[in-house]
Design goal:
Largest sheet: 6 strands, parallel
Helix content: 40-55%
Order of helices and strands: EEHEHEEEHEHEHHHEHEEHEEHHEE
Number of helices: 11
Shape: elongated
Structural class: alpha/beta
Number of strands: 15
Length: 414
């Protein structure tokens, strides 16, 4: 491990290109050269990656370095609270103003828990008492500060991206609502389904903020995975809503191209088996000639990925799931059969309405959008869908789509 120390003269800078990118650049704001030398010696004896310790004695000098476009990009700031031109926690805000993404570790001679908490509240990542500092505490504090700040910045970017996407897609939803007067059921369902992943993200970030030092690496990894999963659920829900909205305003297009239907169906079955539990068996049966037929692969995938997902989800005890495909009188007939919980008769009438879910689903999660998407994609492909179901026995969806051949001069009417 190597660590160099340089005392910066006021307003002295250094070009970014002159420093290797692998270095950890530490900006030390400390008016005592002896304290700076002591910290350098601690770092030399640590297992920290190669570092470059830049030492300035005044807050104004540090601000100048942070705002100089030709200066180094700093990974962390070590801040003494007693400086010639600044005293106490008032030094934190100017640094955050000019370098909001650089984590700050406060150095002080005072062992004061209230002062430490207030420093963290004002934006510092950690608080060290000088006379208690050793190699382990210094390196741990620097590493945690850098990692924690990077995690916070990453979460902030994700939240900004999600917020931007929510705003964009909210505009689409508002347009759809103006044209179709979305029902109160839509508002209730969406508020519930958005709240859950957003609450997960919020609670997880607060947990990282308040308990990061006491969490193990495995616990932190689990929390980050929970945040990513919640974000993916949000994006998926938004995409599903937009797809339904596009269909409702006649913007869902069918663009048929040559497709090997048997290979496509085999791929669907293999993907479904991967998603299913070990208690499920997924099978494919093909009958008839489908060579040189035209299909919109995107619409087909929306149709059968949702049907397979429902078959797996609503067959919690496992069992056989079959996709049977046959050609008959220029019609492709698909039967997707499961042996799950079934659908009550009174729910069949509203089964393809957006946000409607069968009354017997219990605690099985879902948005009520999957079958609405399936029906709209089937209709966009010029076909029709029907369902047969018995509670406790299982469900069969029957999808009929016109066979269009690549040599045909008849276009699929949209």
């Amino acid at each position: 491990m190597t660590c160099s120390i340089r005392v910066m003269e006021p307003y002295e800078g250094k070009s970014k290109e002159m420093m290797p990118a692998s270095l950890v650049n530490i900006l030390l704001i400390e008016d005592s050269l002896a304290e700076a030398r002591f910290l350098q010696e601690l770092l030399k004896g640590s297992k920290l990656d190669s570092c470059n310790l830049i030492h300035v004695k005044r807050l104004t000098e540090a601000v100048h370095l942070l705002t100089d476009e030709q200066a180094l990009v700093y990974d962390v700031i070590l801040l003494d609270l007693t400086l010639p031109d600044s005293q106490g926690l008032g030094s934190i805000q100017p640094l955050l103003q000019f370098a909001p993404s650089v984590p700050i570790v406060v150095l002080t001679n005072t062992n004061d828990d209230e002062l430490a908490l207030e420093a963290v509240r004002q934006g510092a990542q950690d608080y060290l008492v000088k006379r208690q500092v050793n190699v382990e505490t210094l390196v741990r504090s620097l590493r945690y500060a850098i990692e924690r700040k990077q995690a916070m910045e990453s979460l902030r970017e994700v939240n900004q991206s999600l917020s931007h996407r929510v705003k964009e897609q909210t505009v689409e939803l508002v347009k759809a609502k103006e044209q179709h007067q979305l029902t109160s059921e839509f508002v209730s369902m969406m508020s519930h389904d958005f709240r859950n992943p957003l609450s997960t993200i919020l609670l997880s970030t607060e947990l990282l903020r308040d308990w990061e030092q006491s969490l193990s690496k495995e616990q932190k990894s689990s929390i980050f995975q929970r945040i990513r999963s919640a974000g993916k659920n949000l994006v998926q829900l938004l995409d599903e809503v937009i797809l339904v909205g596009q269909a409702d305003v006649d913007r869902l297009e069918c663009l048929p191209t040559p497709l090997d239907l048997e290979s496509f169906c085999q791929q669907l079955v293999e993907e479904a088996q991967l998603e299913a539990s070990s208690q499920h068996q997924v099978e494919l049966k093909m009958q008839g000639e489908f060579a040189e037929t035209l299909w919109d692969e995107s619409l087909l995938r929306h149709i059968f990925s949702n049907l397979f997902a429902n078959a797996i989800k609503y067959s919690p005890q496992g069992g056989m799931i079959q996709l049977e495909v046959m050609a008959q009188d220029n019609i492709a007939i698909f039967h997707l059969i499961d042996h799950g919980i079934g659908i009550p008769p009174h729910d069949l009438v509203k089964l393809f309405q957006a946000f409607h879910r069968a009354s017997n689903v219990g605690k099985i999660s879902g948005t009520g959008l999957g079958l609405a998407i399936v029906q709209r994609c089937v209709e966009a492909h010029g076909g029709e869908i029907a369902v047969e179901s018995e509670v406790g026995v299982g469900t069969t969806f029957v999808v009929k789509l016109p066979l269009v051949y690549s040599c045909s001069t008849t276009l699929l009417e949209m």
